[in-house]
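Hi P.,

Sorry for the delay on this. The queue was packed all week, but I finally got your sequence through. Input first:
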Amino acid sequence: MEQTKKSSGETLYKVFIYLALILLAVTIIVPVAWVFMASIKQNSEFYGNPWALPAGVYLQNFADAWSKARMGEFMLNSVIVTALALVILLAVALPASYALSRFEFKGRKFLNALFMGGLFINVNYIVVPIFLMLVDGDKFLKGMIGSGFFLNNIFILAVVYAATALPFTIYLLSSYFATLPHDFEEAAYIDGAGYFSTMVRIIFPMAQPSIVTVILFNFLSFWNEYIIAMTLLADPKGAKTLPVGLMQLTQAQQAATQYGQLYAGLVLVMLPTLILYICVQKKLTQGMTLGGLKG
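Then the structure:
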């Protein structure tokens, strides 16, 4: 009797979990599918039933969003900023994480505490201080050479992105590096390899799942970031990243009612992240689950 009640309770629990997961999947999939469907509709179709299937495939929306709405230019800026930020971040975070996790040296605990403290700082709360520092830097440069450099510069934006992502990245990488056995390093040292060579040729390949996870998470963060980009790229005629350009397109289409262009712009924002996730899904799962010493 007790076994029957237990089995019935487990069945109800599983049914509840499955229903909750299905509901969650529907709430995510339906809006995404609706955006893709709306991006190939003609403008006149939006005045009827918004849930109706498109009468045809109207790809002119993407051409208009790419050229007339400058989404192509904004996407190129986002690609440059995201790539630069990832390169700078990995160039700093990988050696720092390796040193903090594998070596004992004076000040190591203090540095670890600083980086861990950075995990509790919301980047949105320090946008204004960052902006004011860059404004002062531009004023100094204008007084020296007659022109500024720090504001409306996508390279500086990439540096700010990389700097704000360091705490999380170092925390994740150093935690993974700490689980790797020292045997391979010791064998490399015996064979005459130096610290740098061992790090690049031995440790980094072993930590590939964790590195891919860091790249994906930070790519999504940099690609979709809006507040910092809007603040540091304040010139209306200057360079803009894709989220900022999409917001400008949204504001413009409220009066022009070119809904097809708007949804095509949304698809252009979402598509790279979806493609990247599909390509690295397996390695992402490994990076989140692997760990611990292997015998």
